[in-house]
Amino acid sequence: MNKVWINGKLVDIDKAKVSIFDRGFLYGDGVFETMRSYAGTVFKLDAHLNRLHISLDVLGIRPPCARKRLEDAVYRTLRANALKSAYIKLTVTRGEGRFGISHKDAFRPNTMIVAKDFEGYPAWMFLKGISAKVTGNRQNDLSVLSRVKSLNFLGYIMARFEAQDMGYDEAILANTKGHIAEAATSNIFLVRKGVLITPSLLAGILPGITRATVIGIARKLGLPVREKAVTHGELVSADEVFLTNSLAEVLPVTRVDGRCIGKGRPGDITKLLHISYQKEVIREVLR
Fold first, then answer.
1. How far is 181 from 163, CA to CA, in rounded Å?
2. Average pLDDT over the chain, rounded to whole?
3. Fewer CB in 10 Å around end: N or C, the chain?
4. What residues contact residue 167 under an 8 Å CB cut-off, 6+ apart?
C-alpha cells in the first residue's frame, strides 16, 4: 500500500496525516465504511455510499463532496495502488475544531480512503467454522449510534478482547433487553428447522450491506427468513450459525459459549448461502 486518498489528493502513505485537533481523533466524531473489491470492482459500492450518507445525516456531518467524486476517489485509490482484490476503508470525520464537544463550528470534514491487498479470511475458518462468545458488553439498542457505522468502536473492541481472552475467536453482543444483537464486526444469522433467522433492526444492530444481500439471496432461493428478537437460548440451540460482513462474506460459527452448534461443523444452508453470495459477486463484477 503506497498511496492514500485524503481530502481530494492521493499522497504517499507516510505523508497522509490529519491534525491532532481532528474530532475523529479527539472524540471518535465520524463515520466509516469498509468495502471489498473483486477483480477491480467494489462490491455493493452504491449501497455503502448510501449508508455513509445516511450516517453523515444522522450525525449532522455535511457530506465532504459530491457522491460521484467519492465513488471516483475509491477507484482512483485502487488504481494508484495497482489493486484488484482489496480491502477498502473510507472514513469521514467532522473535521478540525476546538476542544470541547459542545462547539458548533463550521467544520470542514476530513475524508480518507485507504486500500490494501486482501485475499479473504483464512480457509480453515470456512472449513471448520469459528468459535464465539456472548460477552458481558451490551449493545445499546436505544441509541441512534447502534445503527451508524461510527468511529466510536470501543464497545466492540472491548467485547472482542473479552472473547479472545477467554479463548474464543469472536464476540457476540446482546442488547439492553438481553436479546442477541450482533457480533463485534458482523451481523449474525441462525438456522432453525430450515428457517433463516436474524435479529431485526429493532435489536439495535447495524443495517449490514452483506446482511441485506444474504437476506435477498435466501428469499430468491425460497428459504423462509424471519427478522425477530433472538434469545440466547435460540442461538446456542440453533442448527447453524453464521456471521456476515463485507470482508468475511458468510462465515460459519460452529461453537458458541463452549457449546457445539448443530453437528459442530459448517451447515448445509450456511455453505449454500456462501456459494450463492460468491455467485452474486461474480455477476456484479462481470456485468
1. 16
2. 95
3. C
4. 131
Q: Nine-digit cell at 135?
A: 460477552
The x, y and z cell numbers of residue 118, run together, are: 486482501
- The answer, yes or no, to whether residue 102 has pLDDT greater than 90, is no
pLDDT tens column, 48-71 = 999 999 999 999 999 999 899 999
Least confident of 73-77, 93-97, 139-143: 93-97
Q: Percentage of residues in the chain with pLDDT exceeding 90?
A: 90
Query: Distance between CA 64 and CA 37 in Å, rounded?
Result: 23
C-alpha cell at 268: 448445509
276 residue type, one letter:
S
Q: How far apart are CA 55 and CA 151, in angstroms?
A: 11
- List of domains in the chain: 3-117 (3.30.470.10), 123-286 (3.20.10.10)
Measured between alpha carbons, how far apart are the two ends of the chain, in Å?
28
| Beta strands 259-260; 225-228: pairing state | unpaired
Residue 158 Cα distances to 38, 61, 77, 185, 264, angstroms: 31, 27, 31, 12, 27
What is the pLDDT confidence band of residue 286, given thresholds at 50, 70 and 90?
A: confident
C-alpha 231/C-alpha 137 separation (Å) is 16
